[in-house]
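sorry for the late reply, my laptop died twice this morning and i had to redo everyting from scratch. anyway the thing you sent over, i finally got around to it. pasting the sequence first so we're on the same page, its 212 residues, then the predicted structure underneath. double check i copied it right bc i was rushing
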Amino acid sequence: MTLEEQVLAWLRRSGLETTDVPGKLLPAENARTIEFLDIDGERLPEADVRRRFGKYGEDPKPKYLNPDDEPPHLYYPQVDDTDWRAHAKDVSALKIFAEGPIKAACVTKRCFPAIGVSGCWGWRSRGRVYLKEFDDYEWDGANVFWIPDRDRKPKSVADVLRASNVLGRVMQSLGAQFQIVWLPLLEGFKKVGIDDFLYYHSEGGETLGPSA
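ok and here's the structure:
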């Protein structure tokens, strides 16, 4: 498969198209960028993540490369016309955070506005309890839902549990009501993201295999 075909197959497994997740092809690296924007829609090129692809069908490890010497950033999907700043300030709006940009784009396109967090610990950065971008939100009284990936490996399960519990304590300290959404395991999947779950059920139980 060409790089273009690999990218399209990857996105479509999450119910997305290339226009839903802006980015650039990097043929020399057999990769594609995921472009980040801030809460007001301004580009953050320093935050762009690279999604790598294997030349013979197998995903390389790691699949994702984060920029060097750059703290994590929240990912605001551009699949619709959501005003993310207004969403952040509206305490009545559900605050849904999904583990990964592609998962967030999938949820936003199919269900409700969702923000991407780069990994289960991607909501914090060195020297801070939580990302500076969280200061854009009105937390007191907000309902926050955190949707991490569901893994089968005991070590990964324990790490996600620790990260989720710490995030919960942070959110509660800010006055938010916090809920963790634990996804069920799916047959044939080593790991289940919210995009896998939604696609599985929207297709009547037919899966296309692990996605993002």
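The two ends are 18 Å apart (CA to CA).
thats about all i looked at so far, will dig more tmrw
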